[in-house]
Batch of 4 targets.
Target 1
Amino acid sequence: MIFTIFVYNECVEVWKDARVQATDQRKAEAMAWVDAVQPWGWTNTGGAATRALADSPNRTILLLSDGAPNYLDCAHTYVADFETHRSLIRQSNRQNT
């Protein structure tokens, strides 16, 4: 199995730029990275899902959130509603994940 992790507020950050093998060491590194994440800011669900879906061989995405999708860019200029996020995700989902 291979994986990577994205976290998001109004911005989207990735743990590793490419998916890596799920070795015990990599999983421990990933958990340490996730443990250091602090919740903050807005909720750019559409941006995070689009970024994950851009990896076209990726067939599984697990999305966890602490709030409703309400922001769509890291520049702090665009507040988006739920339907905008859903539309963006549907447009990005070319592999029917």
Target 2
Amino acid sequence: MSKYETMRTDPANWKLGIVYCCNDDPRIVVRNLLPLGWTWNFGHQKAYIAILVAIASLLAPPFMAWQMGVRSALAIGIIITVAFIAVVLVASRLARDP
């Protein structure tokens, strides 16, 4: 077991069992305690910036498409889906051990 996995599974680093906060862990995104998904490392200084970037990455593409005259619900849905997949791929990369 790696030192990062030890930090992730340490109950002292989980607030209320759902919020991960470990200042010693260099990862911004970590694998959740549940077998599926990720969570933010709120002990990392750049986590809050990463959250804002993730939100902007999800909201900006459909907003820009709307401003460019795209009014099709299908097109907007596809744009949102692609933006979501991009955020998930980046999160999965950030969750790897350094």
Target 3
Amino acid sequence: MFKKIALPLTLVAALLGISTTVFSEDTPEQIAVEYRQGAFIITKVHFGQMGAMVKGAKEFNADEFKKNAQTVAAMSQLVMNGFIPGSDKGHDTTAKA
């Protein structure tokens, strides 16, 4: 009995693996969108930590503040790599051309 269903199950599993691979291939534009969105999330997290210190919601720590500021500065340089022609349309983005 097992032999009778093993081959069909193997074929279904293989086809599912192939189909997800084919349909999950990202275009350069989609990769750019995801890249810049990731950079913006990182910036938001680190900027938020600095803001909490400035507002007094979190104890001020000069070393931590400096590290967060350095990360924000680095992300500000990297995020521009995520703006390539065509990445402002047809993707999960609100970027303006």
Target 4
Amino acid sequence: MSARCWKTWASKKITEAEDGAHALAELQDRSNIFDLIVTDYNMPNIDGKELTEHIRQGSEQPTVPILMITSEQNEQHLAAIQRAGVSAVVKIGRASC
């Protein structure tokens, strides 16, 4: 889902990252405080599961809600995402925006 879609729904600042590594860098910047993280499972460099693990185990915001929106269908991958600590998973067929 594109940032354009989120910006039409959100009333606060949106921080967009082009991949999991960039998202992790944004999280490590202590000037950024997030109320919610929305991510995908399938991302380059660091996938959504790895990002979730970094957030839960080594970030300044280990309890921030993480919403994963994904088209991933592999049940083992989805179970691993849940074990990593994601707050909620929304399975989609394809992006609607």
